[in-house]
Amino acid sequence: MATTITPNVGNLIGYSYREPGDYKFSQAWYERALKADPDHLLTSVLRPVWQIEQGNRDQTHENAERPGIAAGPFFFF
Q1: Residues 6+ apart with CB under 8 A from 64
Q2: pLDDT digits over 14-48, tens only?
Q3: CB–CB of 28/56 below 8 Å?
Q4: Which residues contact 6 (CB under 8 A, 6 or more apart)?
Q5: Contacts 24+ apart (CB under 8 A), 35-42
Q6: Which superfamily, per CATH, for 7-67?
Q7: CB 33, CB 11: distance < 8 Å
Q8: Is the pTM of this model over 0.90?
Q9: What are the sequence ranges of the domains in the chain?
């Protein structure tokens, strides 16, 4: 029986891996959260932070321009 991951759970696990610097697992969980809900606001806000920490500033701006994502949080980047 497959377990369904909600976007909130995937985001929380991704954040939990990101904080100590385990970016490989963090990315996998952020992607699972976005797969469950491509417009999940919290993941859409925290994932760019992960990208900036990895030096992917250009990718952060590309994701900020995705349709359906609230633009408000991204003016900080």
Answers
A1: 48, 71, 74, 77
A2: 889 988 988 889 889 988 998 999 888 888 777 77
A3: no
A4: 36
A5: 36/4, 36/5, 36/6, 36/7, 36/10, 37/7, 38/68, 39/68, 39/69, 40/7, 40/8, 40/11, 41/69, 41/70, 42/7, 42/8, 42/11
A6: Tetratricopeptide repeat domain (1.25.40.10)
A7: yes
A8: no
A9: 7-67
